[in-house]
Amino acid sequence: MKRLLPGVFGLALLCCGVAGAQPKEPIVLALHADMSSGSALAGEALRRGALLAISELNAQGGLLGGRKLELVVRDHHGVPARATEQLPELASMPHLVAILSGLHSPPIIQNLGFIHEHQLIVLSPWAAATGVVHHERVPNYTFRVSVDDARVGEFLVARALARGHGRLAVILEKTAWGRSNEKAITEALARRQLAPVSVQWFNWADADMEVQLAAMERAGADALLLVANAPEGAAIVRTLARRPPGRRLPIYAHSGIIGGDFVRQAGEALSAVDLRVVQTFSFVGNRSARARAAAAKYHALFGTRSEEDIFSASGTAQAHDAVWLLALAIQKARSTERARVRDALERLGPYQGLVRTYQPAFTRSNHEALSPSDFNLAIFNPRGVLVPAQP
To answer: Is the pLDDT of residue 340 over 50?
Structure first.
């Protein structure tokens, strides 16, 4: 700490009425996600990832000469209409620089007009629908540090075919996210002169998938590509596990199922099926210095002891990296003015994050921080922990 001359110190006391400078205004980041419904665990993983990064940044003195970061949380339950009601409050919040979105894509897509009208920077550390980032708004205020459906569709198709499955059925939730994935998967198959043998749909809260599975079996499917969140994904697993072992089709799943209480909801059925899930990051078995330091900080903040206790590791790491990239943009812009920070996000230098080294994360023409080289398949171990699958 710099020493103050006596006269300066007396002047500070006279002007401020207290010893020391007034606290600087915080820099506010909002998490706008489902925190209490079917994907609440995803929301909590994102909250923890954001707080992990904020604790690191604040420990280094904050940004812009000592301004500390703060996180506020708003729960939209995954419902686009509720997100619409809450966005005006966030847009007018003092010192708010950006919003971290949650697992669900529709709350973003259905509010793109408001987001861009009010110059709200939205960083998506989970929502994967192509339309979250790829749209006609210029300048574009939405950025993603997560998988995107167009690339996940190609990845899942390629991995299923590589394992010898040539008759792929698709089962998806009946939302904008599901439709985004149907397009991506169909196009990925078409590039190989193939098509899904069956496309089946379900609604939120559907608890039995017998009709859909029977239709896929009649079509001769030898594997399923699954696009679901945790409750409906667990229902599919339970329905599939009721079949004899020889009729349990392998599942290649989008990351939505790991955003809720999937393991508990699937129960013993989980160990009876061959399920592989898209994942971008795991603390389990990760020996990089960056991952070990982040895990130690996570344990200190949240009272965990083992890397297996860090649930939804991809979402945690992606939120962590998104906050750091935002912080770098604020420093580069030398401002918290959202338009200037948005521009700076497109001009960042390299940054070594948890998920990858970004070189750079974004450009003017590309707001996707991750690429297919960051995607992996993971499986659930006997303790119900998602761990990287062997190649």
So the answer is: yes
Question: In whole angstroms, what is the distance from residue 286 CA to residue 276 CA?
Answer: 19
> At 251, phi and psi to the nearest 5?
-120, 135
Percent of the chain with pLDDT strictly greater than 70 = 94
Digit-coded pLDDT (tens) for 43-89: 999 999 999 999 999 999 999 999 999 999 999 999 999 999 999 99
C-alpha distances in angstroms, 285 versus 211, 298, 302, 317?
Answer: 40, 16, 20, 15
Cα separation, 99 vs 91, whole angstroms: 9
User: What are the chain's domains?
Assistant: 27-147+288-374 (3.40.50.2300), 150-279 (3.40.50.2300)
The pLDDT of 100-117, averaged and rounded, is 96
d(CA 390, CA 285): 12
In Å, what is the CA distance from 204 to each residue of 63, 98, 207, 235?
42, 29, 9, 11
Rounded to whole angstroms, the Cα distance separating 115 from 130 reads: 17
pLDDT of residue 8: 34
Asked whether the predicted pLDDT for residue 15 surpasses 90, the reply is no
DSSP 95: T
The alpha-helical segments, DSSP class H, found in the chain are 6-16, 40-59, 80-91, 106-109, 112-117, 149-162, 176-190, 210-218, 230-241, 262-266, 289-302, 313-333, 338-345
Q: Residue 202 region, left (φ>0) first, then alpha (ψ -120 to 50), else beta?
A: beta
Q: What is the mean pLDDT of residues 368-387?
A: 95
Q: What is the pTM of this model?
A: 0.91
- The string of DSSP letters for 166-225 reads -SEEEEEESSHHHHHHHHHHHHHHHTTT---SEEEEE-TT----HHHHHHHHHTT-SEEE
Reported for 379-383, long-range contacts at CB under 8 A and 24+ positions apart, including other chains, are 379/275, 379/276, 379/277, 380/263, 380/270, 380/275, 382/271, 383/308
How deeply is 32 buried, as exposed, middle or buried, from its count of CB atoms within 10 A (0-12, 13-18, 19+)? buried
